[in-house]
TrEMBL record:
The gene is pfkA. InterPro entries: ATP_PFK, ATP_PFK_prok-type, PFKA_ATP_prok, Phosphofructokinase_CS, Phosphofructokinase_dom, PKF_sf. Substrate binds at T126, I127, D128, R163, M170, G171, R172, E223, K247, H253, L254, Q255, R256. Mg(2+) binds at D103. This is ATP-dependent 6-phosphofructokinase. It is found in: Cytoplasm. It comes from Hufsiella ginkgonis. GO terms for cellular component: 6-phosphofructokinase complex. Its cofactor is Mg(2+). Homotetramer. NCBIfam families: PFKA_ATP, PRK03202.1. GO terms for biological process: canonical glycolysis; fructose 1,6-bisphosphate metabolic process; fructose 6-phosphate metabolic process. Catalyzes the phosphorylation of D-fructose 6-phosphate to fructose 1,6-bisphosphate by ATP, the first committing step of glycolysis.
Amino acid sequence: IKKIGVLTSGGDAPGMNACIRAVVRTGIYLGKEVVGIKQGYQGMVDRKFVNMDSHSVCNIIQLGGTILKTARCDEFRTYEGRQKAYKNLKKEGIDALVAIGGDGTFTGAELLSREFDIPVICVPGTIDNDLYGSDFTLGYDTANNTVIEAIDKIRDTAASHDRLFFIEVMGRDSGCIALWAGTAGGAEAILLPEKDTGIEDLIQKLEKGADSNKSSSIVIIAEGDKNGGAYHVAKLVKEKFQFYDIKVTILGHLQRGGSPTSFDRVLASRLGYAAVKALEAGETRKMVGIRGNRVKLTDLVESINNNSFKLEEDLMEMSTILTI
Ligand code: ATP
């Protein structure tokens, strides 16, 4: 391997820059050239390549987002699109790839690598923490801390006004952020896509809280909860339960931004370093992840096929006991 291409793809996540930095500096240390591919697979198709030296990744470890930018690229979903991308890589002399992103990014990387025989290692980068083969993904810890900060602030106003707040957090298919941040923020109830919590059950919980003189409450709702989102849940609860003044806050994209936590910076550095070392060792079509605080490789196909990521059962069980 002489020249490694690095790209970020799918949704941005805090820690991606720290990972790019680690890939560039490890590559250079091992005597390789490193090229940044802008806007994920779109940049591969459109030849948006930029040479990276050690200096080009100065002062980025603390930055959220991604200096290489990210994009969704439909052309890459077709064989012709990937062929065009591969030809561009070849012209540029790029003979190996590190792709940072979610399971869509992994699927594209796996196909490209298999069809055109180019080594690829993927790094799990998504705030959702929903990838098989890694206990944590880049950006998850930072997103949780952002949500907790918001919960704490909302709790101040909830308590002052005797209000019930429904806070919607990211997670269309995965309740990871809702469960983790809801637990850390001491939420009175947590609604997850993975668990059917009916409105009646929720109202019962809130009534119990009101009966024990709780003057305010916070309910965390993952955006993929089966009851239909925070506004809808608030409306249903309002119809049957008038004890509190009810408010809704949707945290939205602010959960994606911000300076990565120390955990995400170190995780990103470890996985970026490990990705380049794996390429150097002749590995391909693998994801580098962290399991039990050890860097582990997982087959990309295995990771993609196990996308029904399971929430930690002990956390789920505990959260039903520690909430009201
Ligand atoms: P996030 O979890 O943040 O959404 P992701 O990597 O899953 O991240 P996607 O938009 O699903 O985000 O995928 C990123 C890109 O990967 C797509 O825009 C597309 O270019 C490529 N990709 C996704 N699925 C496929 C596929 N089945 N075949 C080829 N390429 C794909």
